[in-house]
Amino acid sequence: MAKNIPEIYGSLVFNDKVMKKKLPKDVYKALRKTIENGTHLELDVANSVAVAMKEWAVEQGATHFTHWFQPMTGFTAEKHDSFISPTPDGEVLMEFSGRELVKGEPDASSFPSGGLRATFEARGYTDWDPTSPAFVKDKTLYIPTAFCSYSGEALDKKTPLLRSMEALNLEAVKVLHLLGKTEVTSVSTTVGPEQEYFLIKKEDYAKRRDLIFTGRTLLGAKPPKGQEMEDHYFGSLKPRVAAFMHELDEELWKLGIPAKTKHNEVAPAQHELAPVFSTANVAVDHNQLTMEMMKRLADKHDLVCLLHEKPFEGINGSGKHNNWSMTTNTGENLLAPGDTPEKNIQFLVFLVAVIKAVDEYADLMRLSVATPGNDHRLGANEAPPAIVSIFLGDELTAVLESIEKDEFFKKPVAEQININTAVLPHFSKDTTDRNRTSPFAFTGNKFEFRMLGSSLSIAGPNVVLNTAVAESLRQFYEALQDVSSDKMEEAVHTLVKDTLKTHKKIIFNGNGYSEEWVKEAAKRGLPNLKSTPEALPCFIDQKNKDLFILHHIFTETEITSRYEILLENYSKTLHIEAKTLSDMIRRDFLPALLAYADKVACTVADRKNVVNLSCTRELALITKLSEGYEKISVLEEKLENDTAAAESMTDPLAASKFYHETILADMDAVRSLADAMEVLLPADALPYPSYSEILFYV
Ligand code: ADP
Ligand code: MG
After folding, report:
1. 276 lines ligand 1 (CB under 6 A)
2. pLDDT (tens digit, 9 = 90+) per residue, 578-600?
3. What is the pLDDT of residue 117?
4. Is the CB of 279 inside a 6 Å radius of any atom of ligand 1?
5. Taking each helix axis from N to C terminus, what angle separates 556-584 and 616-647, rounded to the nearest 10 degrees?
6. Is 552 exposed, middle or buried (0-12, 13-18, 19+ CB in 10 A)?
7. SS3 call for 306
8. Is any atom of ligand 1 closer than 6 Å to the C-beta of 275?
9. CA angle, corner 493, sides to 492 and 497, nearest 5?
10. DSSP 8-class letter at 544
């Protein structure tokens, strides 16, 4: 039965409509004020909100509530408490207080803290984030919260995000007021993440320890067919996948997540989902929920959703495009150029603020997407390079050039595109063509940051973007604050011009995948941080610490702790991968190789018994298999020894580098030989499914 979508949309969300209906007028007003301006919420108001929330949640079938938070694991965390409160006469009441709504006290000792939290200070706090709506899932009322330590240090991804949104808000409003937009009282950041993922059969997944333990395949010869036919991108959806996507949309809609676009991606078994954008913190929550729902519903359809950045060697990996812009409370997108961008002062100011930010903090942008999984993508000719640059498109670049040279900008007459059919109307060419190879592209009225890996929380990249742009705007305000209004236009013009002169080196409209760009970027002095261990140390560079501390995003202690968590996470991930690969080689692969060599040897012996055949080819095969066995054993032993050596290293940075340089190389060596041997084996020789089986049979 077709469901009424407007009716189910947001039906599990304590949204504005529900609040209006359920809350007393003055309480509703106070809450809206908190949501819009971040003002403190009095306890009596919180009490009243809690009562309404509980009532509504119970109507939706909820029996429990949870403070939902986003620790440094990159996943979400929750601890459920029921609403019940026993009465002396042996019955229960369903209760929920304002205090319980506003503050939680989970034990923080088992979450990554990077040495922030001594075990005797195990207590942590979760603080309600009223700007992201509560919702009901699995009979539980979910309350989005921020998570911090007993002494107030952020232990999560949400807190710095909220702080960075606040910093950008502060600086952007100041600049807008200077430009005469005094009616604007707040600026929020908007984010729309496009999420890529793979779907494979559950039975295949269950047989591969590499997928189970590491999220990616560590072995596997390339299938005869890859993505070369380009037949999967936007291809028609297979019924099983379509059914999954359909249910996913519906479940997301119920949670008020505006899932909008879905399609097959480039690689076989790869797909994408994009929602309509929302405020950054809500977008972060929604993206976490989306990833969780993808996994959960895949399971229901006997599929497994892989969110790893590179589940299959030789096949495109998965990323996430973070579309980002800034909007005023009066509804104006600050990155919308309007019809004549060269005259639109406000647009130019915010545009060059972003250009300056990305140029000055290109290293932090790179850092914000650095994960072991993403290292397999960046710079691998399928995802943007590890070098951060900005694509503006020809027209905007021409506009900026004319400003820089003090020339009059002549808008080219829009070219007509004729696609040679009578029925299709002729249309005007988009002023910015699509550029797929740029890590940070202007796409009409927003920037699209394309370096994110598919499993990453989008909080980090947006923290960096918001903060770096806030810093540009802070400096712009300083430069312009004393200019009289009749001189403002000229002063802004000079500011834009000077900023461009200094920062145009970050602009690159060409092919980001090319070798020439790598050379050219080096000439321009742009950082090329190829791997996570190379990128991470920039977190503790003085320039970057200053930025975060100045805008109250992180304290020095928080920076150090996060840096440590990131380093540790890198080494731990590779450690697990190395152990898993060794395990599969020793227990699955080598025995299969040996068994097959034995089998062929028996066949040869039998035949020689019966008739005196030479069996040259069989004997050659046995030799190949035996040599392979020998070589792989040696390489696997080296991997094991190096892994043991890595484990005993005490300096986290040195360890991460060792994992990157030595362990990864060991793993590659084992793998490439094993993959070359795999094609000699019979189809059923290995206890786990091959690439062909996994990728083409959903
Ligand atoms: P594509 O990148 O494929 O051209 P779209 O331009 O339609 O796709 O949008 C991609 C994503 O960008 C969507 O999630 C969309 O909601 C989001 N988006 C559009 N406008 C903005 C904006 N002003 N701020 C943030 N995200 C936006
Ligand atoms: Mg896109």
Report:
1. yes
2. 999 999 999 999 999 999 999 99
3. 59
4. no
5. 150
6. middle
7. strand
8. yes
9. 115
10. H
